[in-house]
């Protein structure tokens, strides 16, 4: 089981440690309680039912508990489930820990931090450079640990930083081909565009929206932060308004939550770069589980399309 | 001519002072320059052509100049024009001044300021009260002079304050009928909702959008201002986020420029109050010029509808 | 249990009388029949299952039966259910009656009738007054008993009259602030706007749509009724067409079922008044069940939004 | 000039009688008045300018005057204009009359009336038959003279009756192929569907919308008329509601002015029949003026499409 | 049971042969496997559950197996189910065969082929005639057996040919009434419009989409085929492009999968004819199961509308 | 005047050679003919009027004539015009030629051809490589000369090839960053995506749409061409369908003319690459004419937005 729980087919036996992501108690048709458990490992999630759950079991099998499970994969209405045969909580002897079951970015945090620092270092406009550095420093710790979203793309530990690093590389490649682009604006836009998520979201694991996140959203949060940073750093040039505009408009459409459309070239391009990196992440992870000559599961954030993996791809 | 230039019918003679709002030089089909003048008085605007304009005339008849004009109203493609017979700039002896030709709110500035102060005084939540008072004080002067918009509704001197006063009265009437409403939030929302326009717009006369207005918009500007006010006043309760949300969402739809839909009852109601007062202003001013038994001009911001004035209305 | 069945939390015991709103027989996975019961009291509804229901039980527990139930509230997929421990039909000795379990308007019918009569009495235009009085008299009884809708807002006994009374008060408050409004048209519009629902809907309890309601709708029904009333009363002025237009257009948009947009000022304002009263009703009833610092259930007719009750609200 | 004014090409000389459809006085750039005249004959319309028009000429050349014109066709911005060389009002000796210049249906009124009577005669359901006959009789005269619309399709004298006759033939052909259709409903629907236009529109020539037409529309007008007819004829069966529904829903979509979608099979089919006959009329009249191998003018009511006439069509 | 399984009401006993359309194994709440079976006969489909299914039963009751079933119709959440009492696979002695349980067109294949041949024979333009005949011949066999769609309309054996025959008759009736139509284009368009479905779909029974169908669609497939046919037949006139355009545009809107709107009269009319025949098929089949005075099930492809069968229809 | 006619400001004198792009004869208000001339040089276009044009002048100054003009730039309604003082046709002695006045790609045709050949050379899948090479060879000449569009972006001589070369470089940069991408599909998609324009459009200069272009569009044309190429080259693998799908879907949305949404990863990415290169071309050319601190003209294909050039940009 090198690849993990989501790569198994119906009929395969399971005998491994898994992390309980959520545990929900319900009443079965026969009047007895049962638990719906969502297990996860680094490859993703799978659902299971624990029938006739005693009060003790309900107590034992809560979210963020690691368990040893044996059972079998079954297909139910087109989706895999795990049929539990045996289950027990892990013990100290098992020597397993939560981070072994949580997906995280494929790069180390220090490596990502170094890359981003290098991009900031290359900036020529001191106002843009100082604001970017100030805000990144202010939210350094959560920036390196938060996901980029609660679902759809980069929804894993350090997903936010990983998304930013990928986008920086793409921004550089595009700026090399279209030399009229202002690299300072583009890099600062990439680094700050989703930084408000460290306030919008609750944390790196079991991520939900905070009240401030729901009422204001990460875009407004970061636009405010740029304003405060400029005040603290006593920066007054047009760069402040321009940076705020780039963050404000990066969703690209009013109905996608940007109250202004991009009105600066680098704002328009930032929107495209964000889009490409997010979609590549979704597509790669979807097609990873699709066999050549078959259609994938429907991808929610890509208009529910099923993508085809050509049979001449391996 | 008690009512002003926009109430005259085709064929009527004109002999009065008018303010030049804009003057645009063009080349006629015969190759000679002419001026397109937009005149205004308190009742509104009318277009005129000054044919074969000499360089001296082009110099003399610029925007914000008061002139004495005699001529005749003519109808051209369904709209009135003024055919100029004689024109001269006003002199000191004429004793006319710009404010005589500019439409402004029907209430005095001090009266409006007093009314608003009274509403703030009645607030019970000190955090909401202090932030509102702080921001109103900070922008007191322009708030009392700016229009509420460049066109469509309340687009006159002190239109912003007048719109706020009308909305406060309507908010009070509604809160009297629906006692579950939080009056503090509602009044603060009304007072602050368009205050960002003092930065978004250029000034009370010949109003245009500033760069900051175009790139950020009055909603984002005021949400930032609330954040800064709270910092300066060292206020930290949830009231800050809630006030920001109410301003953020008051346009009521993403496609109308609010990046979040109203998620608080008072935010939803503020949107309705704003809408009613703006629409009543448009409708009253449109129907003022419509005869009983006839349809009005098309109203741009009301889906280009022509409204009917029933023949049993006087 | 002063507040009623919908205010209980999971884990609380239940021992009270309830009205069966609907009873549906189904076959369980073990092949045995069971009943899904929707109970209601004045506070609202709750679902329950009666497992292994015998033929006698199916016979006994039908819609509009009052029962004595003891059991416990349980949470199932985020919604409360009632787990039945004991159930029996009520007897004469229990001295309970259907109206004790049905939600109705917070005002008495006679009080509402008086208020509306007073508004009609104040009308100055005799044509408008006579048509309004004629139609109200014609449908007096059902008008005072019907709900204003089958769901979303004012969906309770006498909801229609209560909605009209609230709107009349709001119309009066608005007309006081905007004196150009024709109060006769506004009040007549409010009184008649949903009166067609007494034909569109089946009755005050277990309300469904009639065939005529489905095929024509309450708007068309009432427009026809106004025409017939004018014929019977031998009224021929433009008021007839104008009243018909105001009813026709009060949904405000073609896609919301008005075949003409409002083209008369009072028609436009009627639409806003209707909207505010309906939305206030929804919001109040939703937030009544929401704790400070939490988000409400999603409100279907408000774009599925969850509303936030600020933590500084009690 | 057998085909008429709209079939001439730029450069061709004109010397014929034409009817003035509209005459609009304007002021030229040189300050002198001129007239914009829309001439018409049976083939359609053409615009012309009468420069330096004296007061006498303005008086002489008003709408509904027949004139003798000589001049030349010129192309101005892709549209033909008539350059006037000589013009004079017609005299009695010229022996020309208005109906020679007005387009009308290609069938005689009596012939159309007979066809429709025959369809009514074939109806089997007495309620449907009596209502249809009653309403057709009530509006017999204008029904045979009115256009079916002010523009887009069948916008000529007797266009309404002609549209109905074509639709009846099409309805019969479709009912022959799909025998489950109720012919009575279908024929009654066809005959009554646009009959409200005799109240919505002002008359057969220079057609505009009446106040009642603007405020209620022909659909609501006719639904009311059906209700009144049923009352007068003391008919009470479900046929009345069903007929009203078919008229109400025949535009097929809420945003096209039907407050209910078709919910009866014949209502759905009536919408298709109406659509086909209207579109065939537009397409035939557009392509009549298009040469093989070329694209037509843009057709407003067909999404502004330019239609291609294949080069192998003659 | 003359009419078939879909015409039975809840409570009626069942004892007949049925074809298994699909069989899906699931795990019940008690942990035991069960089968969800979709049975079909010529009248349509019904669902059933086979509880506690042994491995042998899972093996025996697979798709495309004919079984003898006895049981009872039950209503579950508003839809009928079949409660199985006894079930066994059919044997040779039962003398039943798959085609007895599969719905197919009400006309014989040879009869349909003859009708279409006759229409081709009547074509006057040799280029259009040759291309049409060539393609029909190339795909003769599947054309006569395929359904016209996987759901919504004509989704039965030979549904494609039956749809074409109905449309040809309708096209002829319309061309008789509107003589300007080019019958050759219209008939060729009808015959070829959905012919690409023989490549887009998998076959006449248990029909799904092929990879080519998913990636290209029947419209593009047939446009390519017309191009290749013209090459093979060495036809070069504009007829080729025009025929391709008519197929390309026959869905009538970009969002319905036509990359070009109809720009030729016959293309526009083909779209209407296709629409009428598809909708009549849906409506007839839906209303066949609806009692007079009741509303039908919701029809997915007609905006989820429920259609009403008037109570005066039998 | 190194930069060309479009870079001059109002008031500047003009004395240079220009190419007449279009010449339109009209009748002035004084009844005399005049010419509206659109002049062009490599920098773009400017309008001018030639008043009181004699028949000889109309004859002399036709499209594609080079003229010597002196005059002055004037601003008319916010757009520059050229006021002609003197004009004469160029003579042989002037030694000017059309290509000096026509904008073309900034790279040489041979250089672009070499680059593309190199990309094809790098392909690994022989089926994809052979089809791409075959089609490029078939349309080699027009491919190197056609514009990529008639307006909006790359609407200049060799614009198509230049667009392809830029996209190939961008595709390579993206494939370097996201190694899961199939470079063969991506490069073939880039090279072929707009190749159908050599049939859809009329030619490199004064470009319009052909009949085939209007009726089928470049997408359908190229999908057909791929099918024919595969037949000629006797290639049958899934690569053919996949390549056709990538071209078919590259507009990304049904309403933008792709009858299928992208269902293959490289199809989705091709759409983004096409979009970025087109938008960068529009933005660069628009902002080239915009001064720092100002807003640009509205860009039609970018939602009519005016873009801002920050004042800290030079």
UniProtKB/TrEMBL annotation, chains A, B, C, D, E, F:
Residues 163-279 form the HD domain. GO terms for biological process: rRNA 3'-end processing. It is an enzyme of class 3 (hydrolase). InterPro entries: HD/PDEase_dom, HD_domain, NA-bd_OB-fold, NA-bd_OB_tRNA, YhaM_exoribonuc/phosphodiest. It comes from the Bacteria. Keywords: Exonuclease, Hydrolase, Nuclease. GO terms for molecular function: exonuclease activity; nucleic acid binding. Gene3D superfamilies: Hypothetical protein af1432, Nucleic acid-binding proteins. SMART domains: HDc. Pfam families: HD, tRNA_anti-codon. Transmembrane segments: none annotated. Its EC number is 3.1.-.-. PANTHER family: 3'-5' EXORIBONUCLEASE YHAM. This is 3'-5' exoribonuclease. It comes from Oikeobacillus pervagus.
């Amino acid at each position: 089981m090198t690849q993990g729980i989501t790569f198994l087919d119906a009929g395969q036996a399971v005998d491994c440690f898994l992390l309980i992501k959520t545990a929900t108690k319900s009443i079965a048709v026969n009047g007895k309680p049962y638990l719906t458990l969502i297990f996860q490992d680094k490859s993703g999630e799978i659902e299971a039912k624990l029938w006739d759950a005693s009060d003790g079991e309900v107590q034992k099998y809560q979210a963020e508990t690691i368990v040893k499970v044996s059972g079998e994969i079954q297909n139910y209405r087109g989706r895999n489930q795990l049929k539990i045969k045996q289950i027990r909580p892990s013990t100290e002897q098992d020597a397993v820990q939560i981070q072994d079951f949580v997906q995280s970015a494929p790069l180390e945090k220090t490596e990502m931090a170094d890359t981003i620092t290098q991009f900031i270092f290359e900036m020529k406009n001191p106002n843009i450079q100082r604001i970017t550095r100030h805000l990144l420093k202010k939210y350094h710790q959560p920036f390196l640990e938060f996901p980029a979203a609660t679902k759809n793309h980069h929804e894993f530990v350090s997903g936010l930083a990983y998304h930013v690093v990928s986008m920086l590389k793409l921004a550089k490649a595009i700026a090399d081909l279209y030399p009229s682009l202002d690299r300072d604006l583009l890099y600062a836009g990439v680094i700050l565009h989703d930084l408000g998520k460290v306030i919008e979201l609750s944390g790196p694991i079991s991520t939900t929206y905070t009240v401030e996140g729901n009422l204001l959203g990460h875009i407004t949060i970061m636009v405010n932060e740029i304003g405060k940073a400029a005040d603290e750093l006593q920066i007054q040039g047009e760069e402040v308004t321009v940076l705020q505009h780039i963050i404000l408009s990066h969703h690209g459409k009013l109905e996608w939550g940007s109250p202004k459309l991009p009105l600066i070239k680098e704002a328009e391009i930032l929107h495209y770069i964000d889009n490409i990196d997010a979609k590549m992440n979704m597509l790669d992870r979807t097609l990873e589980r699709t066999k050549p000559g078959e259609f994938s599961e429907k991808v929610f954030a890509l208009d529910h399309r099923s993508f085809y993996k050509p049979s001449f791809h391996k």
